[in-house]
Design brief:
Length: 662
């Protein structure tokens, strides 16, 4: 299989260990005086965006940052709970750059690009050093060294954390670096602004059209380069662990202007979500994967068991992950754990009123921690109650905010009864296709963090999202963007009254007017919920040819109805959240169709893409490496019309094999 001539991954030559080092030593540079005349637009202010903007401004570039929230501190990066991976080997348990590289490739079911993943592993340690220098309060051991905990898909402890709020603390570090540059005048921060389109001139991205979400006014912004750091598209399913504002609009507009979309069907289902409680919900809440890896997951051995969890004796509990995957147990990757939970519930072993949940139990670990504390305190023959009290204090210190959150949502005390969890949409491994430099197929347009496809293959390992976002922003884009901008130093700032800007703004205005003038009978949320149900039922945890074919037809019908009968109240030239949602849902509908087409085209199971027709006798994902060891890069050719391009994946350092976590 040869890669499409339209795709050039630009992977450097040399051994995997030397590619990034040699690249950094030979890449074209921009001298400090020239940087001051080069303008960069960063769309999105989460970890990838804030770290990139702060770093590029520190280097001397003129940077403009847009975020649709009122502050970068509200970016969805704050929702990450469990931690950030790095190959520091502080536990002396056999970790290394190569092992992190291997775990990530294997965890992604051999559908990621080796060169990008190895680079990520290489710079992971620098992330921790950078964040510690910024004052991020990582958890520490008694002696002062940084602490680590376990995460899925690995047999080493490499995850650095700050209680159950690691994303928030990391974002505050990046935000502080960003605000320093804002204060120095090196960064112009535009809050409450949303990108509505990209502007291409002579085949290169030269800026964007944005909407001031407070006034409704459209604005034109020039940039020598544009960085999209706008997160993932999990909200296409309506119910997900994503913030309600998370959307695909920026990436989708870029796609329709020439940026190929990579692996859109790769969706991650997270195994430890608080189960759905009713139709009133607009989002789902995640319990950190660190809980899964410290607690034990089980269901009753008896089908339809209605007893309370605390009334079911140990011998009548099925610790099914430990039974099926003894080598990894509860540490299997997310896609494996999610499918296993679904299988148990579908077979009639689910718990709770809906029977669509499994137990996440901390009793055993609470007791273990309690015994350790009792030994520290030199307590002889402590009672079971005393041991559990001491253990609870340890658990509370490590996970207290997560346990409190669960109690507030469910009304149950997780210190006394097991949590109930069930899989839910969490992360999207697909995104805009980018080369080794993080550039899309449109010169000058970059995608970073969850907005690109590059590092996770068909399944992301836990604690790797924060790692990728910060790696891209702090340590990758500062080098790779210089290679492109070194050829742009003669390009003067293009006036925004240029014909391309005028045309792009007119197209955005026309779309706004069209949405406002439909004046239909159904709300935006009505269409979003219906799309979400189609996607979850037919392109969710399990997919098949019949369901995907049906979903494509249903989504096309839904799209036609949306543009005939959606109702957007209010006015365009004012603060109008319903108009914002209408834009985003219109894009979700189009993306949903492409996701189903991509899933239908990929006749194999791999990672989070599970086609029921392609599975092993044990119910595991069955890959077809002969025919599908490629990145699916889709080119937009018009309404409901997409052309597939393939980037061949070559594995020179890791042998292709059926994943085995037993």
């Amino acid at each position: 299989m040869a890669s499409s001539p339209k795709l050039n991954s630009k992977i450097p030559e040399g051994t995997i260990e030397n590619k990034w080092t040699k690249y950094r030593s030979t890449v074209h540079l921009v001298n400090p005086a020239n940087k001051r005349s080069l303008e960069v637009i960063v769309v999105g202010s989460g970890l990838a965006g804030a770290s990139a903007a702060a770093t590029l401004a520190e280097m001397g570039y003129k940077v403009k940052v847009l975020c649709f929230q009122d502050s970068p501190r509200r970016a969805h990066s704050i929702a990450a709970q469990g931690g950030v991976n790095a190959a520091k080997n502080y536990q002396n348990d056999g970790d290394s750059v190569y092992r992190l590289f291997y775990d990530t490739i294997k965890g992604g079911d051999y559908r990621a690009r080796e060169a990008n993943v190895h680079r990520l592993a290489e710079v992971s340690g620098n992330i921790i050093d950078q964040c510690v220098a910024q004052g991020v309060p990582f958890a520490r051991e008694y002696g002062g060294t940084l602490s680590n905990r376990s995460f899925g898909g690995t047999q080493v402890q490499r995850t650095f954390y700050a209680a159950g709020q690691t994303g928030q603390q990391l974002l505050l570090g990046a935000y502080s670096a960003l605000q320093r540059q804002v204060g120095m005048g090196a960064v112009q921060l535009l809050a409450r602004h949303e990108m509505m389109d990209v502007v291409n001139i002579d085949g290169k991205c030269r800026g964007i059209i944005a909407r001031d979400l407070v006034t409704g006014k459209l604005e034109r912004h020039f940039g020598h380069a544009v960085l999209l750091c706008t997160g993932g598209y999990g909200n296409v399913f309506y119910l997900s662990t994503n913030a309600m504002g998370s959307n695909v609009t920026a990436a989708w507009k870029a796609h329709k202007k020439g940026a190929f979309f990579g692996n859109p069907c790769y969706t991650q289902i997270h195994p430890t979500c608080i189960p759905v409680s009713g139709d009133h919900q607009s989002k789902l809440t995640l319990m950190s994967e660190s809980l899964r890896n410290d607690g034990r997951i089980w269901v009753p051995k008896k089908q339809g068991d209605t007893r309370k969890a605390t009334d079911i004796p140990e011998e009548e509990r099925d610790y099914y992950l430990e039974r099926r995957y003894p080598a990894f147990g509860n540490l299997v990757p997310r896609d494996v754990a999610s499918r296993a939970a679904k299988e148990r519930c579908d077979a009639g072993y689910g718990v709770g009123t809906s029977k669509m949940a499994v137990y996440l139990d901390f009793a055993a670990n609470t007791e273990r921690y309690g015994k350790i504390e009792a030994n520290k305190l030199n307590l002889h023959n402590p009672s079971k109650a005393e041991i559990m009290r001491l253990g609870k204090d340890v658990v509370k210190e490590k996970y207290g905010n997560l346990f409190d959150m669960y109690a507030q949502i469910t009304g149950e005390n997780p210190y006394e009864v097991p949590m109930r969890i069930y899989p839910a949409v969490h992360y999207t491994m697909g995104g805009l296709w980018v080369d080794y430099n993080l550039m899309t197929t449109v010169p000058g347009l970059y995608a970073m963090g969850e907005a690109n496809f590059s590092d996770h293959g068909a399944n992301r390992l836990g604690a790797s999202a924060l790692m990728q976002g910060l790696a891209d922003g702090y340590f990758v884009i500062p080098y790779t963007i210089g290679d492109y901008l070194s050829e742009e130093i003669r390009t003067k700032a293009i006036p925004t009254d240029n014909e391309a800007f005028v045309k792009a703004e007119a197209e955005v205005q026309e779309r706004i007017s069209k949405l406002m003038n439909i004046k239909g009978t159904k709300s935006v949320d009505n269409f979003h919920k219906r799309l979400g149900k189609i996607m979850w039922d037919k392109c969710g945890m399990a997919r098949n040819k019949e369901g995907l074919t049906s979903a494509i037809s249903e989504i096309q019908q839904l799209k036609a109805e949306f543009w005939k009968d959606v109702r957007v109240p209010g006015e365009a030239n004012e603060f109008n959240p319903e108009l914002e949602k209408a834009h985003r849902v219109a894009d979700f509908i189009e993306l949903g169709e492409l996701m189903c087409k991509d899933a239908l085209n990929r006749n194999e199971s791999c990672g989070g893409h599970f086609r029921e027709e392609y599975q092993t006798p044990d119910g595991e994902a069955l890959r077809d490496d002969d025919n599908f060891a490629y990145v699916a890069a889709w080119e937009y050719k018009g309404d409901s019309n997409f052309e597939l391009h393939k980037e061949e994946l070559t594995f020179e350092n890791i042998k292709l094999a059926q994943r085995n976590y037993a």
